[in-house]
Each structure stands twice: as C-alpha cells, then as structure tokens.
Amino acid sequence: MTAMLEFRAVKQLAVLMVLIMGLLSLAPRAEAGFVASQALTARDQDTATVERVLQNKVVHQRLQELGYSDQEVRERLASLSDQEMNQLAGRIDTLAPAGDGFGLVIGLLIVAILVVVLLILADKRVSIH
Is 28 within the bounds of a domain? Predict the structure, then answer.
C-alpha cells in the first residue's frame, strides 16, 4: 500500500513539475550583462591599425606622390563607416608581419588604392604622373 502511495506521490510531483516547467517556458527571457570595453572601442582599434600603416614612410610617400595631403587622407578615413574601417583593418591585419615584404607592399598598395577609390567617389580629381 505504501508503495502505491509513493508511486502516486511521485506521479503527482512529476505532473506538477511538467506544468511548472511549461509555464516557465512561456515567460519571455530577458538577459542583462556587462559589455566588454573592447567591443566599445572596435572602431578605435581599427583606426589605430590603419593609422599605423599610414605612418609607414612608403605609404606616406606614395600618397604624397599621388597628390593627397595628410588632411585629405584623414578626412576620407573619418568618413568611412564602421564596417568599411573594420574591413580595411582586417585586410591589414592578415598581412604576415615577418614575411618577405611582398605582403606588406600589397597591403600598402591596397590602402593606397582604397584611398584613391574613396577620393574618386567623392568627385575629387585623381591624376597619376
């Protein structure tokens, strides 16, 4: 008799738990948490990466040869969206730092080409001598 009562109590408890879990699953979920400071400064990190490449003498000299002032290049970089800046920094980061230099040259040319394309899109005159 006690086994039957225990079985009945377990059965009732199981049904009760199923009902409670079902009701809890209907409640909307809300989560909160802290945002890492790195997520807030992603654009700053990308900008620092691009700035580091622009400080390279080869890139700086090439942009000067193409007729772009430092101020003009900085204005164009400031007008990039977060996504475009992230893509540009990502391309720069994929370069092998200890490579033979070929990847660096390609990366610098990509940066220079992107700046030229931005200036063309802004209806600026680009002339290569």
Answer: no
